Protein backbone atom coordinates (compact mmCIF):
# COMPACT_ATOMS: atom_id res chain seq x y z
CA UNK A 1 0.00 0.00 0.00
CA UNK A 2 1.31 3.44 -0.92
CA UNK A 3 1.83 6.00 1.81
CA UNK A 4 -0.13 9.25 1.85
CA UNK A 5 0.75 12.50 3.51
CA UNK A 6 -2.23 12.14 5.86
CA UNK A 7 -2.30 15.89 6.47
CA UNK A 8 -5.52 16.79 4.62
CA UNK A 9 -4.16 19.98 3.05
CA UNK A 10 -6.42 22.02 0.78
CA UNK A 11 -4.70 21.41 -2.55
CA UNK A 12 -7.54 22.65 -4.75
CA UNK A 13 -9.66 20.52 -7.04
CA UNK A 14 -9.31 18.38 -10.15
CA UNK A 15 -10.09 20.16 -13.42
CA UNK A 16 -12.50 17.64 -14.94
CA UNK A 17 -14.29 15.98 -12.02
CA UNK A 18 -13.91 18.94 -9.62
CA UNK A 19 -13.15 16.46 -6.82
CA UNK A 20 -11.35 18.08 -3.89
CA UNK A 21 -7.67 17.19 -3.53
CA UNK A 22 -6.58 17.12 0.10
CA UNK A 23 -3.97 14.41 0.27
CA UNK A 24 -1.12 13.10 -1.88
CA UNK A 25 0.58 9.80 -2.52
CA UNK A 26 4.18 9.82 -1.45
CA UNK A 27 6.76 8.22 -3.75
CA UNK A 28 8.23 4.91 -2.60
CA UNK A 29 11.55 6.56 -1.68
CA UNK A 30 9.96 9.00 0.79
CA UNK A 31 9.46 7.54 4.25
CA UNK A 32 7.43 10.50 5.58
CA UNK A 33 6.09 13.81 4.26
CA UNK A 34 8.99 15.51 6.03
CA UNK A 35 11.48 13.20 4.30
CA UNK A 36 9.86 14.04 0.94
CA UNK A 37 10.37 17.78 1.55
CA UNK A 38 13.89 17.24 2.90
CA UNK A 39 14.98 15.26 -0.19
CA UNK A 40 13.57 17.91 -2.53
CA UNK A 41 15.31 20.71 -0.66
CA UNK A 42 18.63 18.83 -0.86
CA UNK A 43 18.19 18.41 -4.61
CA UNK A 44 17.40 22.11 -5.08
CA UNK A 45 20.44 23.13 -3.05
CA UNK A 46 22.64 20.91 -5.24
CA UNK A 47 21.28 22.53 -8.38
CA UNK A 48 21.89 26.01 -6.97
CA UNK A 49 25.44 25.04 -5.96
CA UNK A 50 26.17 23.75 -9.45
CA UNK A 51 24.78 26.89 -11.07
CA UNK A 52 26.75 29.06 -8.67
CA UNK A 53 29.99 27.19 -9.42
CA UNK A 54 29.38 27.59 -13.17
CA UNK A 55 28.87 31.33 -12.71
CA UNK A 56 32.05 31.60 -10.63
CA UNK A 57 34.13 29.74 -13.19
CA UNK A 58 32.74 31.98 -15.96
CA UNK A 59 33.85 35.03 -14.01
CA UNK A 60 37.38 33.62 -13.63
CA UNK A 61 37.88 33.56 -17.38
CA UNK A 62 36.64 37.08 -18.11
From TrEMBL:
<dbReference type="InterPro" id="IPR036372">
    <property type="entry name" value="BEACH_dom_sf"/>
</dbReference>
<dbReference type="InterPro" id="IPR000409">
    <property type="entry name" value="BEACH_dom"/>
</dbReference>
<feature type="domain" description="BEACH">
    <location>
        <begin position="1"/>
        <end position="62"/>
    </location>
</feature>
<protein>
    <recommendedName>
        <fullName>BEACH domain-containing protein</fullName>
    </recommendedName>
</protein>
Amino acid sequence: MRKTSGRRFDLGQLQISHDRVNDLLLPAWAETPEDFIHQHRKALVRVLQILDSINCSDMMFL
